[in-house]
Every structure is written in C-alpha cells, then in structure tokens.
Write a structure and sequence with these properties.
Blueprint: H1 12-15, H2 22-61, H3 66-80, H4 84-93, H5 129-144, E1 148-155, E2 158-165, H6 169-174, E3 177-178, H7 183-190, E4 194-196, H8 207-215, E5 220-227, E6 233-241, H9 250-272, H10 274-289
Antiparallel strand pairs: 1-2, 1-6, 2-3, 4-5, 5-6
Helix pairs in contact: 2-3, 2-4, 3-10, 4-10, 5-9, 9-10
Length: about 290
C-alpha cells in the first residue's frame, strides 16, 4: 500500500503559491490586517470607557467584581436598545444618585418628542437610534442623489462611524473614528455644510485619506452637521458620489439643513430621555441585584 505523501513528495504548487497568485494573496492578507487593526482600535477606544463604568458601578453598588458590573451594563443596554459603549459613557459622565436613593433621577422632566416629519420616513420608532439614524441617512442620500453615505456621531471629541450605506469595509474601518483631515470633521467644527466637489484635487485631505476615499469609488462628498436647537453639534451625515459634483441648489441645501437640524434635535432628545431612562433602569437592576 502506498504511503501518504511526505512534505517532499508534495508538488511545488501545493507548497508555494504561483507568482500569479501572490498579488491576490497579498491583497487578502492586507485586508485581514486592516480588519484586525480596526478591531483593535475600537477595543482600545471603548474598553477603557467600559472599564471606567464598571469601576463606578462596583463602588456605587458594592458589586463583587467587574463581571457583575458588565452584566448589568449589558442587560440595561439591551433592554433600552442602546449601544453598550454609549451607556458606559453616560454612567461615567453623569452625576450618580444620592446614596441609598430609590431612583436616580427624581422629578425628571419629560421632554416632548421631536417632530421627525422632515425625514420623510413615515412612522418611526423614535426611541430606536438605529432606525432614526437610518431614516436620516436615507433622506440625505435621496436629496443628494447617491447611494453611498454614512452617519458619524460625536463621542469624546471625535466622530465615530455609526451608520453607513454603499461603502466598502476598507472605508468604514479606516473612518471608524475621525478627528481631522476630512469634510465631515470640517463640517462638525464649523457647524455648516461642506462640499468637496473633487476629492482627487481637494487640498482638504492627506494622501492616505484621499486614497481610501477614491478606492471606495467616491469622487466627491458633501457633509451635513447635525445641530440641535441650541447649536450644539452632535455629528455629521455625509454623502459620497461616484462623479465630481458641481454643487447643490439652494432648495437642496435648505432641505439638507432641515434634515440635519431635525436629527440633531432628536439626538439631544434621545440623550435626555431614552439614555436617562436606561440609566434609571440600570440603577433599578443594580439595586435589585443586591437584595
């Protein structure tokens, strides 16, 4: 009976890629490394925030360990349909309840639900962040006439990618967090709309940023700040276009302005109502866990 082939018996094609296969394998390896780097960056930014919230909860409620605190955070975030890192950030920055208090926010004011008619999305679940952000993104892309775009929200002074459509994984990984060198950061800083008519020739991008945008098939972009009724910027919606832009009409710009204001006002409402309700629920869960 013939023995199984040894390493030396295997053909060269099995042991080594042919020269024609090398570029494809290199591209696959590069894509995998980019994905790993992106995941590590997300962990590096979010883990300290979650760890800080765990520490606050351990001390406040005399929890046995970080695992118990994380379990409470995860349960409250799931019940409220809020991202874990958003709830953790709120725990860390919000003054806590009085020692032994039955409720966290006594006499909490009820803020009226903002009118989302400007998004032209029909009936929306106003407490569902993903649904509302998706509707706002769709509205902006409809007005600007493209199917590529993204929503970024301000977190700890940087823009974090929260929703996107029609964009490559390389693009969304690269722009997972943004603090400069893009039209979206300029729109957020200046609190007004920014149009880049031609990405290839714009001085507003560094070489790496420009390369990633062009590789995603975007030749132009437009960014709309999300501003509430007190002129606080909460994020940006950007549209990306397969061809250079000549600009938008005043009617389009006004419609985009209204959409940005509508979403900015909703984000403020969400923070003051849905997020605080989640904190209150977390407080009740923590109190119950001690009984």
């Amino acid at each position: 009976m013939p023995s199984a082939p040894s390493f030396d018996d295997q053909s060269a094609s099995q042991r080594f890629p042919s020269p024609s296969d090398e570029p494809e394998q290199l591209r696959a390896t590069a894509a995998e490394l980019r994905e790993q780097v992106s995941e590590l960056e997300v962990q590096a930014r979010t883990r300290p925030r979650i760890a800080l919230a765990e520490g606050v909860l351990i001390e406040r409620y005399r929890l046995p360990n970080a695992e118990a605190a994380f379990t409470l955070l995860r349960q409250a975030s799931q019940r409220a349909n809020i991202k874990l890192h958003q709830l953790a950030a709120a725990v860390a920055r919000t003054p806590g309840p009085a020692p032994g208090a039955r409720v966290w926010f006594s006499g909490r004011a009820q803020h009226p639900v903002p009118d989302l008619a400007a998004l032209e999305a029909g009936t929306l679940n106003v407490t569902n962040q993903g649904e509302v952000l998706g509707a706002a993104l769709h509205r902006v892309l409809s007005v600007t006439g493209t199917d590529m775009g993204n929503v970024q929200l301000v977190e700890d002074g940087v823009l974090r990618m929260t929703k996107h459509a029609g964009l490559s994984r390389q693009f969304t990984d690269y722009f997972a967090f943004v603090d400069g060198n893009t039209s979206c950061s300029r729109a957020a800083s200046a609190s007004h709309q920014v149009t880049v008519k031609e990405v290839a020739s714009s001085a507003g991008f560094d070489d790496d940023t420009r390369r990633v945008i062009l590789a995603a098939g975007s030749r132009a972009c437009h960014s709309v700040p999300l501003v509430d009724d007190q002129d606080t910027v909460h994020g940006v919606i950007s549209s990306h276009h397969a061809s250079p832009l000549t600009g938008f009409t005043q009617t389009q710009l006004q419609t985009l302005h209204t959409a940005g204001r509508t979403l900015g006002t909703w984000i403020k409402w969400h923070q003051h109502t849905v997020l605080r309700a989640a904190l209150e629920d977390l407080h009740q869960l923590a109190r119950a866990s001690r009984q």
